[in-house]
């Protein structure tokens, strides 16, 4: 039985169900006891964060409705204790700079074991 | 018509969005400004269903960049933009070194480069995620009236077209275009088999 404090809640935000499934699989392989919540848009993420306040969040950028960096900015302004990793295939400097300015970790897509490990390392360093 | 499952469409849209993200990064380096490029939607059509109304291409002239891709399946990929907007993008790509009046001279070369970046980024993303190898021919650019360009596509094409809507924003210019994949039904089945294998591996 894992120690209660080691059970963390992760919110996965991505409009692609396939991407959410991949992140879920790689995270559960390393942390089978974590609680994973999914949101398909930034707006849905904002609602969930108010209700469930996760420890960590992975955030896609290109989504319908508000874009991921904006959702991350709103989440971090309200809940600075949540660690956010921004996942995007758009590795333009402007996105990376915005993520850094928010105190979030920028992780390049595609979702792979390696990219998910980068996000998990960041989460563990912050806790 | 849409014989693709929701999950197959989701996987294809995500693969192309990752490609679009890579293309946006490359284009951003060329124009030295932020570039937004996304593929909000993927649809499958019979080639006989395609016309300017379905694609909402209301401009009289279209620019088309075409490349062929070969691997486990064969596809002709084509990037379609309305020509007036294409010229503005060419001006940005040429880094304003060329006056607006001279830009048409460079249109062919710059549009081939734009097509090459976007098409190859999408196809390389597909190759990486599906773990296949795809080779591409050199890009060819053609311009014509919407009617002629689309009629040519339909006449050349095998039976099916995978149509991706593209939103491209460069330096505050907004451009909507289409990335069209022309596939035979046997090539589509091979592509879907790879997509299913990819989904099953998650």
Please describe what this structure looks like.
The complex is a heterodimer of chains A (127) and B (202). With 127 residues, chain A is an alpha/beta fold. Chain A is built from 5 helices and 5 strands. In chain A, helix 2 packs parallel to helix 3 (68-78) and helix 3 (68-78) runs parallel beside helix 4 (93-102). The longest helix of chain A has 14 residues, at 17-30. Chain B is of the alpha+beta class. Chain B has a single domain (6-200), classed as Chemotaxis protein chec (3-Layer(aba) Sandwich). Helix content of chain B is 46%, strand content 30%. Chain B is built from 5 helices and 7 strands. The model of chain B has no long low-confidence stretch (mean pLDDT 83). Chains A and B meet through helix 1 of A and helix 1, strand 1 and helix 3 of B.
Tell me the CATH topology of chain A.
Answer: Rossmann fold
In the residues of chain A, how many domains can be counted? 1
CATH superfamily of chain A: Response regulator
CATH C-level name of chain B? Alpha Beta
Shape of chain B: globular
Strand and helix order of chain A = EHEHEHEHEH
Mean pLDDT of chain A: 92
Order of helices and strands of chain B: HEEEHHEEHEEH
Number of helices of chain A: 5
Number of beta-strand segments of chain A: 5
Spatial gap, N to C terminus of chain A: 21 Å
Number of helices of chain B: 5
Tell me the β content of chain B. Answer: 25-35%
Give me the CATH fold name of chain B.
Chemotaxis protein chec
CATH class placement of chain A: Alpha Beta
Hey, which two chains have the biggest interface? A-B, 18 and 25 residues
**How far is it from the N-terminal to the C-terminal residue of chain B, by CA?**
27 Å
Strand order of the largest sheet of chain A: 2-1-3-4-5
Helix and strand composition category of chain A: alpha/beta
What topology emerges from the helices and strands here?
The complex is a heterodimer of chains A (127) and B (202).
Chain A: E1 9-13, H1 17-30, E2 35-39, H2 42-52, E3 56-60, H3 68-78, E4 83-88, H4 93-102, E5 105-108, H5 113-126
Parallel strand pairs in A: 1-2, 1-3, 3-4, 4-5
Helix pairs in contact in A: 2-3, 3-4
Chain B: H1 6-31, E1 35-46, E2 61-70, E3 75-82, H2 83-93, H3 103-130, E4 135-136, E5 140-145, H4 146-156, E6 160-170, E7 173-183, H5 185-200
Antiparallel strand pairs in B: 1-6, 2-3, 2-4, 2-5, 3-7, 6-7
Helix pairs in contact in B: 1-3, 1-5, 2-3
């Amino acid at each position: 039985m894992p120690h209660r404090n080691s059970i963390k809640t992760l919110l996965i935000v991505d409009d692609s169900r396939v991407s959410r499934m991949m992140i879920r699989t790689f995270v559960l392989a390393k942390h089978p006891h974590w609680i994973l919540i999914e949101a398909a848009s930034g707006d849905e993420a904002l609602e969930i964060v108010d209700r469930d306040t996760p420890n960590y969040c992975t955030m896609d950028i290109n989504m319908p409705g508000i874009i991921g960096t904006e959702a991350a900015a709103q989440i971090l302004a309200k809940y600075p204790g949540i660690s956010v990793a921004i996942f995007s295939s758009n590795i333009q400097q402007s996105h990376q700079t915005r993520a850094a300015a928010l105190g979030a970790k920028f992780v390049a897509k595609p979702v792979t074991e390696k990219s998910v490990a980068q996000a998990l390392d960041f989460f563990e360093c912050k806790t | 018509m849409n014989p693709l499952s929701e999950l197959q469409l989701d996987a294809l849209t995500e693969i192309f969005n990752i490609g679009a993200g890579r293309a946006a990064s490359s284009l951003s380096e060329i124009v030295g400004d932020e570039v937004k490029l996304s593929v909000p939607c993927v649809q499958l059509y019979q080639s006989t269903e395609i016309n300017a109304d379905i694609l909402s291409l209301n401009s009289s002239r279209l620019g088309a960049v075409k490349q062929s891709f070969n691997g486990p399946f064969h596809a002709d990929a084509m990037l379609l933009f309305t020509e007036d907007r294409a010229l503005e993008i060419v001006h940005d790509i040429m880094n304003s070194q060329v006056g607006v009046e001279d830009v048409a001279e460079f249109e062919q070369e710059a549009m081939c480069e734009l097509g090459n970046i976007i098409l190859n980024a999408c196809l390389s993303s597909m190759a990486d995620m599906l773990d296949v190898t795809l080779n591409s021919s050199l890009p060819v650019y053609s311009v014509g009236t919407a009617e002629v360009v689309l009629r040519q596509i339909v006449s050349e094409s095998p039976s099916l077209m995978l149509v991706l809507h593209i939103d491209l924003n460069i330096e505050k210019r907004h451009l909507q275009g289409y990335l069209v994949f022309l596939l035979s039904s046997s090539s589509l089945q091979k592509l879907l088999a790879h997509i299913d294998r990819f989904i099953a591996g998650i």
